[in-house]
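R.M. (postdoc): so does anyone remember the format we settled on? I'll just put the structure tokens first.
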């Protein structure tokens, strides 16, 4: 595997995804947690960082047992840190070196740059720059403004690049990373099929004849987890799918059908009324989240207790959650994780077969196992569901209005071929009534907001520039068909500073 030492950059995960896309397994670990005992490390990548190497609180680690032992590639801060700790100078750049640039000089004999030609576009994003390289560090690529855009350390398998090969705008970035993997002698045989084969074998070994329980949500992660576990242990897996009454229109029935089609052993629980009565009169978003989260656990427990001899709890945790929980800079803005633990007295152990996969890999694994495209390509949907898309308190009538409006929006989005181009979309029911006119009648009814964003990881998101004709059609249909709505607006805020959900 490749180890990516994380110095806190926003693009660290992207480095991981690029390496995986090249069919090489990698792990992202905090900058000071290098796995010295691992025997399968082929190479090391040092990430960027929000800090400057000379900041007093900059992340620093001893590389003496890494350099020379493995091939090393420093990216941005990683490159500056290597130079700085070997006696070079790093200073604040006069003008922040940010954005597109082109490599005006390339040493094409260097194996890191094989196949990359002069003029190649790269993406810079740093406030500092290397002003003097140590003697053994040789420049292998420059731009007009940055002499040491890339360097190689003489007599060592160590390289540094001050630009970001992992971002899309570095046109030959993937090629550069691939060259690095070749230098490391990587086999590049990490594929969805190989993952499934080895994971199913490991699960069989780990679980034996034990029984496993899993909460399904209709989402991609829990569904793929279920199919993978089902492949390994079959009927020893019991899935529970709770209808909290805040799902999309007909979602519960449709998804149940999909699950049964996949051969899963699923118990569907209709707990709508329980949730509606607990939520009555509650408007605060975090309070609603807590009630829904707790209600979910209660229903799940009640079902779990009816089953005999359960030893394991399956969960659809994926790699970004794992990285976030290890993160050195992470801050929690909203309390997202709803599926909390089961009571201690059940003594369940956790099994999380997707915990090392990125979202796109989860999808590829699902496809490879023959899951339906509409299950795999489904937009993310929050655990508390429509509960956080009804601003203010929740009533069954408001749920009905929102479900109807949302169904029109989503169906049209599919019909117009827009669904797969969007990261996530939905309708929000606002706590606002406004005046309208229908026929000769004055109306005083609800407003809904349409939301659609593009994103790669939900950390940042842009509002989607949907065609006006499409928006016109959606607005017309909603106002004409959904009783209780007389006004539709479109949300044109990006994240940050807005968030994807309104609550
Ligand atoms: P925000 O609104 O923070 O959302 O930009 C980022 C992503 O997280 C989802 N989200 C949630 N998911 N429980 C969840 O399981 C929650 O309470 C929750 N709140 C937001 C949101 O839909 C988006 O995909």
């Amino acid at each position: 595997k490749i180890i990516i030492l994380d110095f806190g950059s926003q693009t660290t995960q992207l480095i991981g995804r690029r390496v995986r896309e090249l069919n090489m397994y990698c792990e992202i670990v905090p900058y000071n947690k290098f796995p010295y005992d691992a025997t399968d490390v082929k190479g090391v990548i040092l990430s960027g960082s929000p800090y400057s190497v000379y900041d007093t609180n900059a992340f620093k680690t001893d590389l003496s047992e890494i350099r020379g032992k493995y091939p090393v590639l420093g990216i941005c801060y990683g490159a500056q840190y290597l130079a700085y700790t070997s006696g070079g100078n790093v200073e604040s750049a006069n003008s922040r070196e940010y954005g597109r640039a082109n490599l005006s000089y390339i040493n094409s004999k260097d194996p890191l740059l094989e196949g990359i030609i002069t003029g190649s576009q790269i993406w810079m994003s740093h406030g500092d720059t290397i002003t003097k390289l140590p003697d053994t560090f040789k420049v292998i690529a420059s731009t007009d403004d940055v002499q040491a855009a890339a360097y190689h350390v003489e007599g060592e398998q160590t390289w540094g690049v001050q630009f970001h090969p992992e971002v899309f705008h570095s046109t030959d970035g993937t090629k550069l990373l691939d060259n690095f993997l070749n230098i490391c002698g990587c086999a590049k045989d990490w594929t969805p099929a190989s993952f499934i084969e080895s994971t199913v074998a490991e699960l069989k070994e780990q679980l034996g004849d034990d029984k496993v329980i899993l909460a399904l949500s209709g989402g991609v992660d829990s569904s793929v987890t279920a199919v993978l576990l089902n492949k390994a242990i079959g009927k020893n897996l019991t899935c529970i799918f709770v209808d909290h009454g805040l799902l999309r229109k007909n979602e519960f029935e449709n998804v149940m059908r999909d699950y049964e089609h996949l051969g899963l052993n699923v118990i569907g629980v209709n707990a709508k009324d329980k949730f509606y009565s607990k939520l009555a009169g509650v408007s605060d978003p975090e309070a609603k989240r807590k009630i829904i989260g707790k209600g979910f656990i209660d229903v799940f427990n009640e079902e779990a207790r009816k089953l005999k001899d359960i030893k394991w709890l399956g969960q659809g945790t994926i790699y970004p959650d794992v990285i976030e929980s290890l993160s050195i800079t992470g801050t929690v803005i909203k309390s997202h994780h709803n599926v909390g633990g089961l009571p201690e007295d059940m003594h369940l152990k956790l099994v999380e077969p997707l915990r090392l996969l990125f979202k796109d890999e989860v999808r590829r694994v699902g496809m490879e196992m023959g899951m339906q495209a509409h299950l795999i390509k489904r937009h993310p949907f929050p655990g508390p569901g429509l509960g956080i898309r009804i601003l203010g308190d929740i009533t069954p009538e408001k749920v009905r209005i929102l479900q109807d409006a949302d169904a029109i929006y989503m169906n049209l989005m599919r019909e117009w071929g827009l669904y797969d181009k969007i990261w996530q979309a939905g309708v929000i029911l606002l706590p606002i009534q406004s005046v309208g006119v229908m026929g000769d009648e004055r109306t005083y009814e609800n407003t809904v907001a349409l939301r659609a964003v593009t994103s790669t990881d939900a950390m940042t998101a842009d509002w989607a520039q949907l065609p006006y004709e499409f928006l016109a059609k959606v607005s017309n249909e909603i106002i004409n068909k959904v009783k209780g709505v007389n006004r539709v607006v479109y949300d044109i805020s990006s994240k940050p500073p807005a968030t994807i959900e309104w609550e």
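R.M.: ...and that's the designed sequence above, right after the tokens. Also worth knowing: The longest strand covers residues 424-438. Residues 330-340 have pLDDT under 50 and may be disordered.
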